Amino acid sequence: MKVKAYLAIEQTISTMSGNLEINERHEAGVAIVSLKGRLDAASSQEAEQRMNSLIDAGDRSILVNLGDLDYISSSGLRVLLASLKRLKKTGGDLHIACPKPAVRDVFTMAGFHRIFTIDDDEASALSSFTEKA
Amino acid sequence: MPQKPPNLVYGLEDTLPLPTALLLGLQHVFVMSTAFIFPVVIVRSFGGSAEQAAFMVTMSILAGGVGTILQALRKQGMGSGYLCPAVCGPSYLSASLLAAQTGGLSLVYGMTAFAGLFEVFFSRLMHRLRILFPAEVTGVVVTLVGVAVIPVAIPNFLGISPGDAVTEALELFVAAITLGTMVAISVWSRGKLRLYSVLVGITIGYILAAATGILGGPEIARILDAPLLALPDLSHPGWSFDLALLIPFTIAVLCSSLKSIGDLTTCQKINDAEWKRPDMRNIGGGILADGSSALLSGFIGGMGQSTSSSNVGLSIGTGATSRIIAFAAGVILILLTFFPKLASVFVVMPGPVMGAGLVFVAAFMIVNGLQIITSRMMDTRKTFVVGFAFIFGLSIDIFPDFFTGLPGSVQSVFSSSLALGTATALILNLIFRIGIARRKTLLLEPGTDFSDTIFTFFETMGGTWGARKEVIQRAESAVNELVESIVFLDATREAIRADIRFEEDSLDIDIRYTGKPLDLSPGGPPSDADLLEDDTALARLSAFLVWKYADSVTADDKDGECRIRLHFDH
């Protein structure tokens, strides 16, 4: 239990780009990226760089928590898709957790709900990584 | 065609077996009987006889029965087509008391008939008055309609009445068990038992009241002594009119109509899963039925009639809104005037049982009103409209002594939280319309943080216009997608102009820029492989999303100026 608690607070990195706040932390071997605000053309470049940094650093399981994301545009969708593609090529995976109804609707409209594993809460998303492993 | 909400067991147009319709109609009559007391209060105010009281109650019940049927009709402009029963309107009480004390019952009947006639004419103007009733004003009225039930509900719930200011433990016990039964059936029962939650609660309440002595010998004797079958007493005192009472009765009928607008709006909302705004033409038909029943009531010797908020609350609570129930309730009411023994069962309803029923239905009315208010985005103006309406309206209930010295002609406005709160909301809504632009222009510069400009603009104007949040979210998303596309494809390097026009039923956005036209032809989304390998796929995804967000998209270009029009139903 102690080890898990330590992992949960291992490191939190927070940055702000445009109207998007990005927070990173690791828990149980999964990189959790929390997005807050809007993921659109103004912020997608920074978001893409952060995702690439994680993948370049060796992270193969990335959980993107969209609980505080108010809006995602096609540019934002593309960033998530590109990251998923990169991870899949190396045996990794990217899951989505807690999207608000408006954001979930965008995933559904664009057909991305068929491409991504989307969970209603972070704990379920984390355990879905464990189940796959 | 309204879409039936999933929580309704029997929706507006659903048919139901006759026994079920009669039982549900009877349940409504129990709730309506709480208003039978008003004619008694009027007759007692000038020292009238028990026979005069019985006559006025009987004629009011008859007018209520006819009014309930007229309301459910929806034929040739008469009626709204909803289960929205007519009862003795509390809005008429103050003016009727004034008439009774100055000219007796003939003056009450004459002035009530005048008020009904006024409402009939008023109903023909309803469809032109939409501007007066945006969602936040209607929501305030519906909420206050629920609040207006509290001063009647709580004293009865606590067993308090004129001459009995003490709450006894047994009265509280009966009220709590009655309310608890209704709530428990509503929340935890399965199947169709929920339909009868109030009827079961009231029946248990009657049994407990009889067992504990609250329903005592005099009340039971009254039921036993009443004849089973008898023709209504037709000793009508005639009609008279007094010009001095025109103002109080006009105010009374306006307050009654506003309450009915609130009730009918609630009926529209609870019967349509996709309800967006009050249908004023339909409400006009409802007000015509309301006025006709008041006119009839004044003519035959009853009290002014108005739609019953408590019964609308009952419909929500039980999940049964079928028009057939209205016809059943109307017929039962008419029959009651010929069966005095049955009518007396309702008349002797114990206070705690009546209070429990009213508390139950008021809860639904209040929450419905709040839902209507919050269905729209709020800004400072609308916050004041809603906030001040509640503050000044509720001040009547909290500080009733402050308003007792006002002239009789305006007493109706200051007689209840509903009347004053509604008047406040209506006046403030009109004042705050000053300076609201329905058309706005937005200039977006490529290379800047245009998304922030777009989202800030729509969030601010959405609140100012009182727009539906869902429509504003789709509009801002569509405009952002379009501008992202224009910038991504480098279609222009000049400013992009967006002209936005808001009306209550539509939001139109006209986007213009000088440069290359976008391909906005409708089609499916690009594949995920395309999105990563083909640069134009992102623009195709944008176009696809724009089509999904907007209700219609048109695009053209002329002499290098590209124009894209987005339309959103509101």
Automatic annotation (TrEMBL), chain B:
Transmembrane segments: 20-41, 53-73, 107-125, 137-158, 170-188, 195-216, 236-255, 324-347, 353-373, 385-406, 412-432
Keywords: Membrane, Transmembrane, Transmembrane helix, Transport
Transport in keyword set: yes
InterPro entries found in the cross-reference section: NCS2 (IPR006043)
Topology term for the membrane: Multi-pass membrane protein
Homology family: Belongs to the nucleobase:cation symporter-2 (NCS2) (TC 2.A.40) family.
Family annotation (NCBIfam families): NCS2_1
Protein name in UniProt: Xanthine permease
Organism field: Methanoculleus frigidifontis
